[in-house]
Design a protein that fits this description.
Elements lengths: L1 H5 L2 H19 L1 H5 L8 H37 L3 H17 L10 H13 L5 H11 L6 H13 L2 H24 L1 H4 L5 H27 L9
Helix pairs in contact: 2-5, 2-9, 2-11, 4-7, 4-8, 4-9, 5-8, 5-11, 8-9
Length: 228
């Protein structure tokens, strides 16, 4: 199927991670920076940062794997093929991020409260271990884009593809967030939230437009696969 080949879910999820990374800097940046070993060596900083991102990526991957496993059973019951749905879900996700519709998603505040309670108790741990713990608990934060990627993994209908989506999304969020961590105290305030917001919006709309164009060029407005 041409559309499935043109729009690979893992690559689209990676782009989604890049697009939503300004949001991650605002929400997860302070948490990630809490793991920085002040006054210690650069190697300690590297270990703390790496452990945070490694465990955060693993957490996303595991949850998306489970979502794909659950979604596969549901899609089989309804007779829906994931290849029909995934590209358009990615388009919907990019548009939601561009227009900040993800802010209106219901957010389980109890999870956020649990994150706060656990994080207060682990502050005394070594920085690399603190980074690992906070990274693993990141899915407990009330994050609209993250919930959207979990939904995409759910509709992937496959645990392996779901895991790929979760990992790719996490990898896409790392570059900007790692830069924020590495230069947090030196460069804080150099990029205003407004600038980051406009950059995010432009890239999200461009990604949605590109996927839509390639889908239409491949299979027509709704895709031949919707007609069978």
């Amino acid at each position: 199927m041409q559309s499935a080949a043109l729009i690979d879910s893992a690559s689209a999820a990676f782009i989604a991670g890049l697009v939503t990374s300004p949001h991650c800097v605002g929400m997860c940046g302070p948490i990630g920076c809490a793991t920085l070993p002040l006054g210690q060596s650069e190697s300690s900083l590297a270990w703390a940062t790496a452990s945070y991102h490694l465990c955060r990526s693993l957490a996303y991957m595991i949850i998306c794997l489970l979502a794909g496993l659950i979604g596969g059973s549901a899609l089989d019951a309804f007779g829906a093929a994931p290849a029909k749905i995934l590209p358009w879900l990615m388009v919907a996700m990019f548009l939601a991020v561009a227009f900040r519709l993800d802010r209106h998603l219901p957010k389980p505040r109890a999870w956020s409260g649990l994150f706060q309670k656990i994080s207060r108790k682990v502050r005394a741990l070594p920085r690399w271990l603190l980074g690992a713990g906070l990274g693993a608990m990141t899915p407990l934060l009330p994050c609209g884009p993250l919930y959207l990627i979990f939904t995409v993994a759910l509709f992937s209908g496959d645990p392996v593809r779901g895991a790929e989506i979760g990992l790719a999304f996490a990898l896409g969020t790392i570059p900007l967030l790692a830069l924020a961590q590495g230069g947090y105290f030196r460069y804080k305030g150099k990029f205003s939230p407004t600038v980051l917001r406009w950059v995010q919006c432009v890239f999200a709309l461009a990604a949605a437009g590109l996927i839509t164009y390639r889908m239409i060029a491949s299979d027509g407005l709704f895709g031949e696969q919707f007609c069978h």
